From TrEMBL:
It comes from Blautia liquoris. This is L-fucose isomerase. GO terms for cellular component: cytoplasm. GO terms for biological process: D-arabinose catabolic process; L-fucose catabolic process. The lineage of its organism: Bacteria, Bacillati, Bacillota, Clostridia, Lachnospirales. Keywords: Carbohydrate metabolism, Cytoplasm, Fucose metabolism, Isomerase, Manganese, Metal-binding. It comes from the Bacteria.
Length: 597
């Protein structure tokens, strides 16, 4: 797998096997040693086989050297975990233990407890007791308890327990992976968009990250003074010329750029991409005398202002944004970057959340237009069917060319179904298919006076996706919106008729949310009408439940979602804040406050 682009180790999961500390004639503790340690080994095996860091490596899991029956062993475990860089702990037990003595007391770790559902020993009693102690001490922990009773010598983790363990593990690894990293804003506020107004306190307090800022003129300085990797640039330019198809130019003939000017723009935007990578994560191949530029900003995500000061004069960043957000480039498959167009940091962070949960490329789009069945019929004569009809219409997701190429749905799984794969599963056939389905059209000179190229594709097939929006609300703080649904395939003539009513040179996707018939999810119109901003971040798959768990770790309440209640998994202390799940979340997040306050 790939070497990490970032400074700092990946988070480690530590397994804490707790046990009844009583010894004596009946050998209570001794009789439980194997069962308890086997639970720890099963959990570790589950994590190692199913969870990966963003670079594709399996997560690292360690187990305490001994079972933990009394406080001295808890202290020894904590000492081992601190030296190993453990950020996440899972306590497991099949029996009663001394809760306050054996629990994880480190306030900096993300915690869960799995109590075995068996009749021989009261694992459930310990689970309830220690979770109450966690709540009493202000150390929220996730509680995991299987629905069905198991035999004491069971060697399989039940499916419901497995689901919760993996949901906790994915969310905890995602949350911990952000700690100590940077969000790099290149430029600042785009056209007055609130999402690109950086709030460093939110990023520091809730995510444990820092904000780095670079003026866009730094790109021009590096181009002018040759502060970039010339070999990489030439390789990237040659690959771009061979694989990136130039599309039609929609601009009036009299203002279109000449062939020479367009070729210069290609060189410019490819060089931009190389330099933005260097700004984010550094480049040891820069020439002598550029030692300062070699180190980068340790950015796990970034945003580029672009409009308007940049794009009124220089080629836009659509190529850089689209290709960096994709799961491959001239080096083949590689971990996607997160680069938010218009420096919409809130959308960029939403993309980051979902990338860390899925290891897939993420799409950035305007939540542009709601199309009712009646409006589609009037405009095209077509009657909606399938998911779009069920949702009472669909939402047009379209942006000026920053969406990852993976979003065109041209990758296929083993059965030939459209998919957006984890980046380390993207093969050459997938890359070729994505590139062939994408053209790079000359930028609309009304929007982008400096020129450039915008990616253009149509998502033609149905895929399960999740769209989210992270918002900041004065007096409340951050909150998240989640809409699970599907991309929608329409007949080509219908797509063309609707697409041409906006910008026909931008990537185009039709989205139908899963509706519930009530509230914000009554219809697709209600989703659009309740959406908190003009942008959305979109991931492959229905991952709303994982996002809810992640947000509870980060203390970010979820304002709107269509995830079924039985999938909602938050720390057990949330149950003390009322009976309604949404209200619980708001009150608990307010009570505990930011994770890094």
């Amino acid at each position: 797998m790939a070497k990490s682009r970032l400074i700092g180790e990946y988070p480690v999961i530590g397994i804490r096997p707790t046990i009844d500390g009583r010894r004596g004639y009946l050998k209570v503790r001794e009789s439980l040693e194997d069962q308890t340690m086997n639970m720890a080994k099963m959990a570790a095996d589950l994590f190692e086989k199913n969870l990966r860091y963003s670079n594709g490596e399996p997560v690292k899991v360690i187990i305490a050297d001994t079972t933990i029956g009394r406080v001295a062993e808890a202290a020894a475990c904590e000492d081992k975990f601190k030296h190993a860089g453990v950020d996440i702990t899972l306590t497991v037990t099949p029996c009663w233990c001394y809760g306050a003595e054996t629990m994880d007391m480190d306030p900096s770790t993300i915690k869960a407890v799995w109590g075995f559902n068996g009749t021989e020993r009261p694992g459930a009693v310990y689970l309830a007791s220690v979770l109450a102690t966690h709540a009493q001490k202000g150390l929220p922990a996730f509680g995991i308890y299987g629905r069905d009773v198991q035999a004491a010598d069971a060697t399989e983790i039940p499916e419901d327990v497995r689901e919760k363990l993996l949901r906790f593990g994915r969310a905890a690894v995602a949350a911990s992976s952000m700690r100590g990293k940077s969000y790099l804003q290149i430029g600042s506020v785009t056209m007055g968009i609130g999402g690109s107004i950086i709030d460093p306190d939110f990023i520091e307090s809730y995510l444990g990250m820092r904000v780095e800022s670079v003026d866009e003129v730094e790109l021009i300085r590096r181009m002018s003074e040759n502060i970039y990797d010339e070999a990489e640039f030439q390789k990237a330019l040659a690959w771009t010329k061979e694989h990136c198809i130039e599309g039609f130019d929609k601009n009036p003939k009299e203002v279109q750029k000449s062939r020479k000017e367009k070729d210069q723009d290609w060189e410019f935007v490819v060089k931009m991409m190389c330099i933005i990578k260097d700004l984010m994560n550094g480049n040891q191949n820069l020439s002598e005398g550029c030692e300062e530029e070699m180190v980068g900003h340790n950015a796990i995500a970034a945003g580029f202002q672009g409009q308007r000061q940049w794009t009124d004069f220089y080629p836009n960043a659509d190529f850089s944004e689209s290709m960096l957000n994709s799961s491959f480039d001239w080096c083949g498959a590689r971990e996607p970057y997160i680069l938010a167009t218009e420096n919409d940091v809130l959308n960029g962070l939403g993309m980051l959340f979902m990338k860390l949960l899925t290891n897939r490329a993420q799409a950035f789009a305007d939540v542009r237009t709601y199309w009712s069945p009646e409006a589609v019929k009037e405009a095209t004569g077509y009657t909606l069917t399938g998911k779009a009809a069920e949702a009472g219409g669909f939402i047009h997701l379209i942006n000026s060319g920053a969406a990852c190429l993976d979003f065109n749905g041209e990758s296929k799984d083993e059965s030939g179904n459209p998919v957006m794969k984890p980046w380390y599963e993207v093969n050459e056939a997938d890359q070729e298919a994505m590139l062939k389905a994408t053209t790079w059209n000359a930028a609309d000179l009304g929007y982008f006076r400096g020129g450039g190229y915008s990616s253009r594709f149509l998502t033609k097939t149905e895929m399960p996706v999740t769209m989210i929006r992270l918002n900041l609300v004065k007096g409340l703080g951050p909150c998240l919106q989640i809409a699970e649904g599907w991309t929608v395939g329409l007949p080509d003539d219908v797509s063309d008729a609707i697409w041409k009513r906006t910008d026909y040179t931008w990537p185009c996707t039709w989205f139908a949310p899963r509706v519930t018939g009530k509230g914000a999810f009554k219809t697709a119109y209600d989703v659009m009408n309740n959406w908190g901003a003009n942008h959305g971040a979109i991931s492959y798959g229905h991952i709303g439940a994982d996002l809810i768990t992640l947000c509870s770790i980060l203390r970010i309440p979820v304002a709107m979602h269509n995830v079924s209640e039985e999938k909602i998994f938050r720390p057990s202390a949330w149950n003390a804040f009322g009976m309604d799940k949404e209200g619980q979340d708001y009150r608990a997040c307010k009570n505990y406050g930011p994770l890094y306050k």
